[in-house]
């Protein structure tokens, strides 16, 4: 089982660039890249809240559970 | 935090300096052993193993039939011989009057010497035990090899320990955090402590199996050494339990650092 981060999809839907989102939620582009690539070990609620607010979406729009 | 950094900086410099000094000391020792016949170059004398290598022994000494009586020596003139031995010249007096039967049987007087008229110590102990080394040479190749290895293993271990300490404090100086290399170096440091002590114990055990004891006899006619002093030198197992425990503790610390490293990585990857 794994958690997939669909941040790329949401960014494309909102026609927003990674750099723009990083600035809006207050994290570095390097950390946003880690999050997008799925290398992150955990996501803080505060970061998730900021992403949802910036992209005007729900956590489920960004995170997806898939069974191996 | 600043205090920690200063302390780490000082320790790093200390271990780096000690590493250089001890490495030079080892090289000089080996150089004297290989390139000189008696360990002397001009007025400078170094370590030389022409008489053999040290074997760990326990020395037991007992004063036979002792009488405990302190000596008071006023107007003492102290002098040191060329060989570095200290001597005293005065007219000593015993504190207690010696018994009349002092010459019946063999009796020896064990006394503290004081150069004032006050007695600061009294003793009733006539047996003394100490750990030491006896320098001996062997014609047997295996024993010779063990002796040479044992003679240098302590110094080698110390240099390796100093090397790892220098590396550890260098890393901490750069960044005071859990890293993979830090955990590995602490683990190696612990392993060196344990291996060094285990080898020391093993070699001293092997050497001790080749002889029973070392005895001393007097050749003075009609006399026995044991009339005055009983001396026995026995094989000793060389093992420092404290260093062994330090080694084990470092292994435990290394696994904690490994766990800390994993936590740090997870924390770094928490966005």
UniProtKB/TrEMBL annotation, chain A:
Molecular function in Gene Ontology: DNA binding
SMART domains: HTH_XRE (SM00530)
SUPFAM superfamilies: lambda repressor-like DNA-binding domains (SSF47413)
Residue ranges constituting the HTH cro/C1-type domain according to the UniProt record: 13-62
Pfam families on file: HTH_26 (PF13443)
PROSITE patterns found in the cross-reference section: HTH_CROC1
Protein name in UniProt: Transcriptional regulator
The organism's taxonomic lineage, starting at the top: Bacteria, Pseudomonadati, Bacteroidota, Flavobacteriia, Flavobacteriales
UniProtKB/TrEMBL annotation, chain B:
Superkingdom, taxonomy of origin: Bacteria
Residues spanning the membrane: 12-32, 142-165, 186-207, 239-257
InterPro entries (UniProt xref): DUF2975
Keyword annotations of the record: Membrane, Transmembrane, Transmembrane helix
UniProt keyword Transmembrane helix present: yes
Pfam families: DUF2975
Name used for this protein in its record: DUF2975 domain-containing protein
């Amino acid at each position: 089982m794994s958690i997939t981060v669909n941040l790329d999809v949401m960014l494309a839907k909102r026609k927003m660039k990674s750099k723009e989102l990083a600035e809006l939620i207050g994290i570095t582009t390097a950390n946003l890249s880690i999050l997008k690539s799925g290398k992150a070990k955990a996501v803080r609620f505060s970061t998730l809240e900021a992403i949802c607010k910036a992209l005007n979406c729900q956590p489920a729009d960004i995170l997806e559970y898939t069974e191996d | 935090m600043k205090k920690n950094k200063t302390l780490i900086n000082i320790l790093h410099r200390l271990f780096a300096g000690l590493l250089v000094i001890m490495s030079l000391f080892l090289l000089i020792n080996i150089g004297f052993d290989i390139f000189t016949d008696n360990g002397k170059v001009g007025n400078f004398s170094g370590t030389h193993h022409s008489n053999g290598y040290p074997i760990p022994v326990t020395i037991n000494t007992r004063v036979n039939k002792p009488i405990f009586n302190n000596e008071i020596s006023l107007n003492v003139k102290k002098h040191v011989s060329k060989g570095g031995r200290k001597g005293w010249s005065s007219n000593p007096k015993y504190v207690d009057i010696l018994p009349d039967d002092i010459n019946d049987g063999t009796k020896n007087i064990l006394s503290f010497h004081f150069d004032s008229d006050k007695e600061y110590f009294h003793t009733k102990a006539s047996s003394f035990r100490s750990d030491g080394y006896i320098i001996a040479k062997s014609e047997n190749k295996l024993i010779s090899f063990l002796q040479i290895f044992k003679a240098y293993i302590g110094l080698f271990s110390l240099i390796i320990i100093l090397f790892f300490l220098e590396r550890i404090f260098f890393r901490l100086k750069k960044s005071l955090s859990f890293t993979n290399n830090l955990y590995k170096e602490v683990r190696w440091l612990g392993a060196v402590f344990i291996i060094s002590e285990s080898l020391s114990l093993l070699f001293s055990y092997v050497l001790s199996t080749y002889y029973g004891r070392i005895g001393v006899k007097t050749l003075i006619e009609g006399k026995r050494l044991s009339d005055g002093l009983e001396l026995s030198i026995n094989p000793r197992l060389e093992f420092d339990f404290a260093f062994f425990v330090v080694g084990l503790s470092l292994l435990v610390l290394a696994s904690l650092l490994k766990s800390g490293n994993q936590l740090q990585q997870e924390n770094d990857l928490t966005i």
